[in-house]
Amino acid sequence: MTIENPIPRLLRQDRVPLGILLMIAATVMFAVSSALAKWQVEIYPAVELLFMRSLGSLAVCALFILPRTGLMVFRTDRLGQHAGRSATQATAQTLIVIAFGLMPLAGAIAINFSSPLFATLFAAIWLKEKVGLARGVALAVGFAGVLLVAAPGADSFRMGALFALANAILFGSVTAAVRGMTTTESAETLTMYQMVFLVLFFGLATPFFFVMPTGIDAAIMFGNGIINGVGQYWWTRALTMAPPAAVGPFYYFMLVWSIGLGFLFWGDVPTLTLLAGSVIVVATGVFLLWHETGKSSKNDKKPLAAD
Fold it and tell me: Other CB atoms closer than 10 Å to residue 265's CB: what's the count?
């Protein structure tokens, strides 16, 4: 028996300008969070950073969500799927933070943007969604862009690119899994279970890799979680205020901020291959977003609802 979603679904009134502003603001938060992780992973283990970041993000999400939903947000009959999805996401997050320590920030972010390509692939495998010619071409072209980003540089760059690519593959699988879970789970339920399980998984792993942080560093780790949590909330709000096709492309502004932060703090000058590969990856991601949104609008005759 399926437990009904306890969060009321309301008819959405589009507020596109505000949605775009929130999406851009979210990308700033995500870029700053990634830069802080890159800086601290040179000193502290990735799982320790992610445990503290998850704590901060959980606090922010609970502050935004629980006053409106109460503990009803945790009602579900898919607990195992929440745990499996979060375990995969914990692994993916660990891989991308390791990648930050091995390669320029913008390069890792650009490769991470290939996750929609892998989400399309996994959706075809698990959800039996038809790939079709357009999706197939986008997958091939997008992966060529990933290869452009990953190819140049020293061995450490290439090793970092492998970690970033593994993160993109796993995150793509998480995206496909979430797509399948949204038939019964609200955005609030998905978010809260994600944060709770991430804290649990990273908390169990941290004692094996723990390095005692200074008071300032510990505050920065937790503050990183607050920044990330605010970004997650703004990202979610942006998608509830406007159609994905209107706000989704602005998510790629994160690459612009990452290039700027990488140059400002680490002196990373983007190469032509990085820029060319990034343009290809972003273009295929935007195309897939436009393609999927168009199909959804044709197939869905019901009013849009906010999760």
Answer: 12
Please classify residue 285 by burial: count the beta carbons closer than 10 Å to its beta carbon, then call 0-12 exposed, 13-18 middle and 19+ buried.
Answer: buried
* In 151-243, alpha helices (H): 155-181, 187-205, 215-241
Question: In what helix (H) or strand (E) does residue 54 lie, and over which residues does it extend?
Answer: helix 46-69
The CB density around residue 137, as the number of other CB atoms within 10 Å, is: 13
DSSP one-letter code for 235? H
**Model confidence pLDDT, tens digit, residues 97-147:** 999 999 999 999 999 988 888 887 787 777 777 777 887 888 888 888 888
Return phi, psi of residue 12, to 5°.
-90, 135
CA 49 – CA 98 distance, rounded (Å):
11
| Residue (of 270, 240, 250) closest to 106 by Cα position | 270
